[in-house]
Amino acid sequence: MLSAENLHVDVGARTVLRGVSLEAGPGELHVIVGPNGAGKSTLLNTLMGLSRCHVRKGRIIFKGRDVTREPLYRRARMGLALAHQIPPGLRGLTLRELVSAMERLYGSAREVEWAAEILDVKEFMDRPLFTGMSGGERKRVELYLTVLQRPQVALLDEPDSGVDIDTLERIERLLIELRRRGVTVILVSHTLYMLEKLAGHGAIDRVHVLLEGRVAASGPPGPLLHALREGGFHGLAATAG
Ligand SMILES: Nc1ncnc2c1ncn2[C@@H]1O[C@H](COP(=O)(O)OP(=O)(O)OP(=O)(O)O)[C@@H](O)[C@H]1O
């Protein structure tokens, strides 16, 4: 469905990714973990096609097509969506107005009623975006807007950061449901506790550990999450050599 082949990416004057490869099939949930600054957001932004991420080498294949040079809007039309780590500011619109505009673009919001329920966003419908929303509320709305695009591949950048434990549980349910519905998810997360729960449900297909712009380890979640719990990224880096 989506693969990165030996991606080397510069942001500004800095080389951030140094040969990253991964391959996610239909309906798979892949998790990217790594220390702050390892390049996780840059990887998602590059897959989405944000113009500040300059691909110096390597390719991105989406649905069998080389999209490395395709602009963001074309990738979005093909079925790729990104939930930002820090949702961009929107002004002058209520959530209801945005939902009805998106409904015209992507089809019925009724199709994703299940996501509105899981994320419990109804109370925000008549609030202007994102005025006065707490960090966790904003994350829920951002996730809902991503699902509303009915993507085939959802790139989720730390949807779980700064949210309370009840919201974490909602996000877990959302991830399990997206996977069940055949949506491919690439998730960046620091929440080991949530990842272990998801792995316990058999909901994670693969974990990739990114260290200094390279995939230091990649595999099924059990052994990798265990190694991270025991030794942190430092321990894993030592094992990976
Ligand atoms: N425009 C830029 N100019 C210079 N360096 C940049 C730029 N954008 C990102 N970087 C650097 O690239 C590195 C990777 O950033 P990125 O946001 O991808 O990390 P991350 O793994 O997502 O980190 P975190 O876990 O803290 O969110 C960081 O060291 C960051 O400072």
Automatic annotation (TrEMBL):
It comes from the Archaea. InterPro entries: AAA+_ATPase, ABC_AA/LPS_Transport, ABC_transporter-like_ATP-bd, P-loop_NTPase. One of its GO terms (cellular component) is plasma membrane. Residues 2-237 form the ABC transporter domain. One of its GO terms (molecular function) is ATP binding. Keywords: ATP-binding, Nucleotide-binding, Transport. The keyword ATP-binding applies. PROSITE patterns: ABC_TRANSPORTER_2. Gene3D superfamilies: P-loop containing nucleotide triphosphate hydrolases. The keyword ATP-binding applies. This is ABC transporter domain-containing protein. It comes from Pyrodictium occultum.
